[in-house]
């Protein structure tokens, strides 16, 4: 049996990417790989993490570097990665440096804990969790806990959340703890003292015996006001000594207390403010009193002001003493700065005298000038004081609004607590600070403010601030929350002040660490209370201490940040496992259903994802509760009838779920965490409804909750990971959970009752539902009903629910026995889909029905068999697979075996072929209606779309619609191959057999299984392709492998043969049978120049393109035989000593280019060098189509000669001088060319050895754009004639001549000279002499020297850049010679001996700065007056330089020259020394990374012909060009 493959995730690192607010969740056992994104490839990057090395403890401040792994060697960085094996839960940080920059990007990963329960320690998956909250204080003595907690066990919960078990403060609030280290003494039964060990034993017993995990709260943010330890350590809170910025707020707080006492005593009755505030007039009067009696008298602005007279006096003395200010800047600083008094004394602020002396300067030192200066200074101080006065008044206005708002809510509002008259017990505002002294007058209190031993005990209370930034501590300086009275204050708690580090408050950090360790020792998890207000660095440190004790710590929190991104900050830094979410937050059933969809699972019918895939951001794991323990009961907010259906909706969520104790028992009020003093009821199997102290399954909705909890756990445990939410009508929500391996579904239909059915009218009829598949059973149907029992009375001792409501519930019944369903008709949707139509009888508000649904038996068998056949591609199909008794014969063989019979030419058909190629064979690419045609007829066409859709699970894409709607695409794939016959026909049979299963399964599953089949076949085909190629490919990186697929893409055999036939005497030529002629015919592979424009017909094959691409696409990939055939086929078409540009199958060839023959010769040289026994090609027979310049095309075999003779003829004709007029010259072969342009010339300069030719009316090199616009008057004018000696042709010629010299020396080439006729006699020119002439002349003629007096320079006035190589020599327009273009780099690669190293390096540097673009090379210097980087072929205007794409080679960035530029860089960098070479390798890798990214993203899976300036997309370019791919491959080979 195949082992399940390991899950690996890949995180791409990009420069300056800060992902602190992005959440990446991973599971233990996963591997995480960090890989370099395009912005970092080719750079010295180091990744650091605080994830601990094996055997080390976690220290969040300790980072270690990770080692890079590069399995494929060193040619590029696309496969380089460093890895983490994630075996320890927690939150971990990573960052990465680049060169000298220490931190250029960072982020977090969160690894989920693994929870274990039972005697056997089995795993409790996070999505299985069903939690119930208990207020610990309502459990009674510890010996009574099991009976009360048993309610959770018996109703199917597997996790209990306890509120804090510590000793509570004076308020009795569950969250106000008086001693964090002491167990609540109320838990000790009479005569026994309970310890934490007793709690731990109970928790462990529940874990083992009940399979139940226990977690509890930790409260880091505050302590109870009566905590003894804070009296001894007041530095642990915010007081007036350590936080003097709170003094104005404290003064206001005391004034409000005294005002409140006076109002309670009736002292403000006359001013309209009675103790019992009852109406708007009272509120208005209170506002007046606050403003006039409180704020005006307190003069709080004085805390922010400067003593003007004192400051002026000091300033005057400094001026008189002649003080010079320390100048802060040469211009002088014109801003007077006030300095806040750190002790916040009235008028305690000072002025920065340096800025004062800088700003106010007397004209002289005379007393009058000094006095005048002081007067200006004083006026400015008064202005500054006025600003502070206004600022404080602004705070006072806000404080007044907040105070009045509180009074209105607490005393008047209908939804408020209506506290009644103002008293000392109920003042009109809560005090913000503790006052642990006897009552005294306000003035006496003010004296205490300045006595440190007293002032340290005025401690700020904690609370909550609506809409505040949760990442800011509202008690620290800079926050005015206490002054502006914006705090919703908890006056039973003191806010704790940790500082930035343990040294800032040692006692508090040590105390809380111990508290954390006690908790983590006994509990499996923590709930972070008030998490959003707990300083992050504190929670981080405490959780690190907890995880040191319990590595698999489960952490939950409820955040009120209002932002998912800020939530992620907390989740990332603290390693929160689950965020609490609440169904009660939904305003209607539609929103409730949306929450289910939001919090977990993937869509039904989702694609199967590979085990190695990108790490994608995720939402935090949810703990989805029907209600939390600190919120109102749904019976108050909605209706009693809604408890069951909303619970059912929550239970169907694919995440952790749960509730709070009391919900299931239908307790009709919130169980207050502060005021509740009664105990929970105990479990009793036969409880009486009249006994409020006991519950059983008949109580409330307990029986329904048991069924739903069991179902929730089963769905998660059995892999029902797919979710579909259907809003049937405004109250009915259907949630489907689907298992992607067994294809079973569970569908829960809930009719919510947000409003009470007794008072709100609900429709009687519910729309019917259509459920695909076969309903196996009704898992449960239940509804809330009234029963005869005494009406609810709040019991004094026990927390009791409504006794007069219970559930009618039936479980595991047949559909026919259902009381909710009226009828269920089976209908079929198409040939393959069985659907059951459900008509409801009695789905009343408050009802739930859950169906278990299977596929129909036939679909189950077919899918089981299909999964069995898919196991060959991935072990994950093992589950749900079945043996197939009727396996078609073709499927008994692995696809790998079938594909091993295919040639690379077959692979071209299987994988690629664009629309034009398909149409040539009578077909076309598959066209998706309402969308687009696919790019290829082969598998890549499908894969390009599916690679986009699959990761996003975009099941709504038109591609998926097309698959669901019919079998057209499926049939296209198999029929296209079947029609081909042979080995490809067998692959077609395989597809047909696999697809036969697809045609008879539910249509919603077709996209994911079609994807699985195509992906498996595609991957198998690629592996087969690489096996047929060279070791360079087989051992190559991902980039190498992506690029070599260009060889398969471009090289194929169509129905119409593109090449002229080879000599019948030649061995190993492929043949096929032609059905039309009934003859055997040669079927050699030809090479398309580019897709889609140059892929078929006469425009498929070009001499120049073929031979520029041949080395990279055929020789380096190991396709030697096919390369030989191409060389020989073109050799057969030699005429006039030239190789045709446009091949036109030979008979329609055009001999209008001067460079193709030299590229052909370079390829023969490369063949001889790279192929084992490569020189044998020189003796291969070439069948000459044109034995003479004037002969008609000859049949193959009529005129054969060895290749070396053809080479010699090409060389000899050049030395003799080629001069002819194209055959059939005129508009019939070129509608734009002028008459002179049809005259072709190519000769050798006898002094320099340079090949030269062309004229200003034609363009014989690769820059061959001929003007076409009559409007712009450029028709018939070549944009780039490049006549004279083009630099790359001179380089190619030098390379060839040098090679022939060496070949002759070795006896492998019979000719040492070329023989020409001069003045009636034969003249022999030795190759060695030709070689020497070029060598001696090249730099003299081509290098543009820095010397202005260079004697070789004929046109110094045309030079605009020095230290470069000319693009040509001897052009008819001399300025063209001096244009900077990338062509010299070609000469550098093929004939590096022509170049002086230092000069070459400088020229390459200029090219890099001026010409290098993101993907390609600018074809012209951007400083040139005719440069234009945007190519628009269809634009016809009056612009001579642009119309009809005239600028094709005048700026747009072509890709293939980049290959030569990079290869030249590498060659000369090596000569420059190791340091330069290493830097160059980085540059090369960085540039290659951009090509890799383009390949990854391109739906054509190729590199384009060109881009517009700065790498912008050019719509007129070929999407995939042979030479672009080839030359980049050559760079990788050189690396």
Briefly characterize the structure.
This protein has 1535 residues and is an alpha/beta fold. It contains 40 helices and 61 strands.
Using brief descriptors, characterize the structure shown:
7-stranded mixed sheet, 1535 residues, 40 helices, single chain, 8-stranded parallel barrel, alpha/beta, 61 strands
What spatial order of strands do you see in the largest sheet?
12-13-16-22-23-24-27-28
Q: State the major sheet.
A: 8 strands, parallel, barrel
Helical percentage: 25-40%
**What is the global morphology?**
globular
Alpha carbon gap, first and last residue: 42 Å
Give the overall average pLDDT.
Answer: 93
What is this structure's SSE topology?
Elements lengths: L7 E6 L3 E3 L5 E2 L4 E6 L8 E5 L14 E2 L15 E5 L4 E9 L2 E11 L3 E3 L4 E3 L5 E5 L10 H10 L4 E4 L3 E3 L8 E7 L12 H14 L3 E6 L3 E3 L3 H5 L14 H18 L15 H19 L9 H13 L17 E2 L10 E2 L1 H7 L7 H46 L29 H7 L3 H4 L5 E5 L21 E9 L10 H17 L2 E4 L7 H14 L4 E4 L6 H11 L3 E5 L6 H10 L3 E2 L8 E3 L7 E4 L8 H4 L5 H9 L4 E5 L18 E2 L1 E2 L10 E2 L6 H16 L4 E6 L4 E7 L6 E7 L17 E4 L1 E13 L11 E2 L5 E9 L7 E9 L3 E8 L6 E8 L2 H14 L24 H5 L4 H8 L3 H6 L18 H14 L5 H8 L2 H11 L3 H17 L7 H22 L3 H4 L3 H13 E2 L18 E4 L4 E4 L3 E2 L2 E2 L11 H13 L4 H12 L24 H15 L10 E3 L16 E3 H14 ...
Parallel strand pairs: 1-4, 1-26, 2-9, 3-9, 12-13, 12-28, 13-16, 16-22, 22-23, 23-24, 24-27, 25-32, 27-28, 29-37, 30-31
Antiparallel strand pairs: 4-7, 5-6, 5-8, 8-9, 10-11, 14-15, 17-21, 18-19, 20-21, 32-33, 33-34, 34-41, 35-40, 36-38, 36-41, 39-40, 42-45, 43-44, 46-61, 47-48, 49-50, 50-51, 52-57, 53-54, 55-56, 58-59, 59-60
Helix pairs in contact: 5-8, 6-8, 11-12, 16-17, 22-26, 24-25, 25-26, 28-40, 29-30, 29-31, 29-40, 30-31, 31-33, 33-34, 33-36, 36-38, 37-38, 38-39, 38-40
């Amino acid at each position: 049996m195949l082992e399940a493959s390991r899950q690996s995730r890949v995180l791409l690192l990009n420069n300056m990417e800060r992902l602190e607010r992005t959440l990446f969740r991973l599971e233990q056992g996963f591997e995480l790989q960090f890989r370099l994104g395009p912005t970092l490839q080719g750079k010295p990057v180091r990744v650091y993490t605080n994830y601990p090395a094996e055997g080390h403890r976690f220290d969040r401040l300790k980072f270690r570097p990770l080692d890079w792994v590069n399995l494929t060697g060193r040619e590029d960085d696309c496969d380089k990665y460093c890895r983490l094996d994630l075996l320890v839960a927690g939150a971990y940080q990573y960052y990465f440096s680049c060169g000298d920059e220490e931190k250029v990007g960072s982020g977090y990963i969160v690894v989920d804990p693994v929870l274990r329960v039972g005697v056997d320690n089995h795993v409790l998956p996070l999505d299985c969790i069903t939690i119930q909250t208990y207020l610990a204080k309502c459990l009674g003595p510890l010996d009574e806990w099991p009976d009360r907690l048993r309610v959770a066990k018996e109703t199917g919960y597997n996790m209990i959340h306890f509120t804090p078990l510590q000793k509570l403060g004076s308020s009795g609030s569950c969250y106000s703890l008086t001693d964090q280290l002491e167990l609540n003494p109320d838990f000790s039964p009479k005569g026994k003292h309970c310890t934490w060990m007793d709690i731990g034993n109970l928790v462990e017993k529940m874990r083992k015996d009940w399979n139940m995990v226990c977690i509890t709260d930790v409260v880091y943010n505050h302590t109870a006001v009566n905590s003894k330890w804070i009296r001894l350590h007041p530095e642990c809170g915010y007081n007036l000594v350590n936080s003097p910025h709170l003094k104005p707020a404290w003064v206001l707080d005391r004034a409000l207390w005294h005002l409140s006492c006076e109002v309670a005593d009736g002292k403000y009755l006359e001013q309209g403010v009675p103790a019992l505030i009852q109406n708007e007039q009272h509120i208005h009067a209170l506002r007046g009193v606050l403003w006039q009696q409180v704020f005006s008298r307190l003069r709080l602005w004085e805390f922010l002001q400067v003593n003007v007279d004192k400051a002026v006096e000091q300033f005057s003395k400094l001026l008189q003493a002649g003080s010079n200010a320390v100048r802060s800047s040469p211009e002088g600083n014109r801003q007077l700065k006030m300095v806040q008094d750190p002790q916040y004394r009235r008028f305690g602020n000072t002025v920065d005298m340096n800025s004062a002396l800088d700003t106010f300067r007397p004209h002289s030192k005379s007393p009058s000038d000094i006095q005048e200066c002081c007067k200006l200074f004083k006026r400015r101080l008064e202005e500054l004081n006025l600003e502070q006065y206004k600022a404080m008044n602004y705070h006072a206005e806000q404080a007044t609004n907040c105070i009045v708002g509180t009074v209105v809510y607490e005393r008047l509002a209908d939804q408020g607590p209506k506290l009644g008259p103002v008293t000392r017990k109920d003042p009109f505002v809560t005090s913000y600070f503790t006052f642990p002294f006897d009552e005294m007058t306000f003035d006496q209190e003010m004296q205490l403010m300045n006595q440190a031993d007293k002032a340290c005990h005025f401690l700020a209370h904690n609370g909550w601030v609506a809409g505040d930034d949760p990442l800011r501590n509202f008690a620290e300086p800079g926050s005015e929350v206490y002054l502006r009275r914006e705090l919703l204050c908890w006056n039973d708690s003191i806010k704790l002040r940790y500082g930035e580090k343990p040294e800032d408050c040692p006692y508090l950090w040590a105390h809380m660490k111990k508290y954390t360790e006690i908790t983590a020792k006994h509990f499996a998890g923590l709930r972070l209370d008030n998490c959003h207000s707990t300083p992050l660095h504190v929670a981080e440190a405490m959780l690190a201490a907890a995880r040191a004790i319990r590595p698999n710590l489960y952490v939950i929190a409820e955040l009120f940040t209002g932002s998912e991104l800020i939530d992620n900050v907390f989740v990332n830094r603290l390693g929160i496992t689950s965020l609490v979410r609440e169904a009660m937050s939904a305003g209607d059933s539609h929103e409730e259903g949306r929450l289910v969809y939001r919090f977990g699972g993937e869509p039904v019918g989702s694609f199967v994802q590979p085990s190695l895939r990108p790490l994608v951001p995720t939402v935090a794991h949810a703990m989805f509760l029907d209600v939390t323990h600190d919120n109102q009961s749904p019976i108050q907010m909605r209706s009693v009838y809604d408890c069951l259906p909303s619970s059912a909706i929550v239970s169907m969520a694919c995440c952790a779920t749960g509730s709070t104790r009391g919900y299931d028992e239908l307790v009709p009020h919130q169980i207050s965490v502060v005021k509740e003093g009664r105990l929970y009821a105990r479990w009793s199997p036969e409880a009486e409804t009249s006994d409020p102290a006991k519950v059983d399954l008949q109580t409330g909705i307990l029986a329904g909750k048991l069924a739903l909890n069991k179902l929730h756990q089963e769905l998660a445990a059995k892999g029902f990971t797919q979710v579909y939410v259907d809003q049937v009508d405004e109250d009915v929500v259907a949630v489907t959970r689907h298992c992607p391996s067994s294809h079973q579904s569970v569908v829960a239909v809930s009719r919510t009752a947000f409003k009470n059915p007794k008072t709100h009218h609900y429709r009687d009829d519910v729309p019917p539902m259509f459920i695909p598949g076969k309903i196996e059973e009704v898992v449960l149907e239940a509804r809330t009903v009234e029963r005869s029992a005494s009406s609810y009375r709040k019991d004094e001792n026990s927390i009791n629910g409504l006794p007069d409501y219970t559930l009618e519930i039936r479980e595991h019944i047949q559909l026919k026995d259902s009381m909710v369903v009226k009828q269920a008709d089976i209908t079929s949707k198409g040939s393959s889909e069985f659907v059951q139509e459900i008509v409801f009888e009695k789905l009343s508000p408050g009802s739930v029905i859950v169906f278990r649904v299977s596929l129909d038996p036939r679909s189950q068998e077919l899918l089981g068999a299909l999964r069995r056949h898919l196991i060959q591609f991935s072990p994950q199909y093992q589950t749900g697979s079945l043996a197939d008794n009727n396996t078609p014969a073709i499927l008994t063989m692995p696809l790998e075996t079938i594909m091993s019979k295919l040639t690379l030419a077959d692979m071209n058909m299987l994988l690629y072929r664009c629309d034009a190629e398909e149409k040539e064979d009578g077909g076309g690419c598959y066209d998706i209606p309402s969308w687009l045609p696919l790019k290829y007829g082969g598998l890549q066409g499908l894969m390009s779309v599916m690679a986009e859709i699959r990761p996003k699970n975009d099941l709504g894409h038109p591609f998926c619609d097309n698959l669901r709607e019919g079998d057209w695409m499926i049939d296209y794939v198999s029929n296209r191959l079947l029609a081909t016959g042979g080995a490809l026909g067998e692959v077609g049979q395989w597809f047909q057999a696999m697809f036969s299963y697809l045609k008879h399964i539910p249509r919603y599953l077709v996209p994911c299984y079609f994807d699985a089949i195509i992906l498996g076949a595609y991957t198998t085909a690629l592996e087969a392709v690489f096996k047929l190629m060279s070791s360079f490919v087989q051992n190559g990186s991902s980039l190498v492998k992506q690029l070599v697929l260009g060889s398969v893409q471009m090289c194929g055999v169509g129905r119409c043969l593109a090449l002229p036939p080879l000599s019948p005497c030649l061995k190993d030529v492929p043949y096929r049978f032609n059905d039309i002629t009934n003859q055997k015919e040669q079927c050699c592979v030809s090479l398309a120049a580019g897709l889609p424009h140059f892929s078929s017909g006469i425009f498929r094959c070009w001499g120049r393109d073929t031979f520029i691409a041949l080395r990279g696409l055929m020789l380096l990939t190991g396709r030697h035989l096919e390369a030989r055939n191409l060389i020989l086929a073109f050799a057969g078409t030699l005429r006039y000593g030239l190789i045709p540009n446009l091949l036109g199958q030979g008979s329609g060839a055009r001999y209008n280019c001067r460079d193709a023959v030299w590229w052909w010769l370079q390829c023969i040289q490369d063949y001889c060098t790279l192929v084992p026994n490569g020189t044998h090609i020189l003796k291969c027979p070439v069948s000459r189509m044109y034995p003479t310049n004037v002969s008609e095309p000859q049949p193959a075999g009529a005129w054969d000669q060895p290749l070396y003779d053809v080479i010699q003829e090409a060389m000899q004709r050049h030395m003799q001088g080629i001069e002819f007029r194209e055959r059939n010259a005129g508009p019939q072969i070129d509608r734009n060319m002028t008459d002179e342009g049809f005259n072709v010339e190519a000769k050798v300069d006898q002094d320099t050895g340079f090949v030269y030719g062309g004229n200003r009316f034609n363009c014989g090199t690769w820059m061959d754009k001929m003007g076409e616009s009559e409007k712009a008057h450029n028709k018939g004018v070549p944009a780039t004639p490049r006549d004279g000696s083009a630099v790359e042709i001179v380089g190619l010629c030098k390379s060839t001549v040098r090679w022939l010299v060496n070949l002759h020396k070795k006896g492998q080439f019979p000719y040492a000279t070329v023989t020409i006729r001069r003045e009636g006699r034969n003249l022999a020119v030795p190759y060695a002499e030709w070689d020497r002439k070029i060598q001696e002349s090249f730099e003299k003629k081509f290098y543009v020297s820095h010397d202005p007096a260079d004697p070789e320079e004929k046109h110094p006035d045309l030079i605009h850049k020095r230290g470069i190589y000319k693009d040509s020599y001897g052009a008819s327009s001399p300025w063209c010679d001096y244009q900077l273009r990338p062509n010299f780099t070609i000469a550098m690669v093929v004939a590096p001996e022509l170049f002086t190293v230092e000069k070459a390096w400088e020229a390459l540097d200029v090219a890099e700065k001026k010409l290098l673009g993101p993907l390609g090379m600018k074809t012209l210097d951007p400083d040139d007056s005719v440069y234009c980087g945007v190519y628009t072929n269809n634009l016809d205007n009056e612009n001579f330089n642009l119309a009809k794409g005239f600028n094709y080679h005048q700026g747009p960035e072509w890709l293939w020259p980049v290959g030569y530029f990079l290869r030249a860089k590498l060659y000369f960098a090596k000569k420059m020394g190791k340091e330069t070479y290493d830097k160059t390798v980085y540059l090369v890798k960085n540039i290659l990374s951009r090509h890799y990214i383009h390949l990854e993203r391109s739906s054509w899976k190729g590199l384009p012909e060109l881009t517009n300036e700065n790498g912008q997309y050019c719509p007129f370019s070929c999407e995939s060009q042979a030479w672009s791919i080839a030359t980049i491959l050559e760079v990788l080979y050189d690396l």
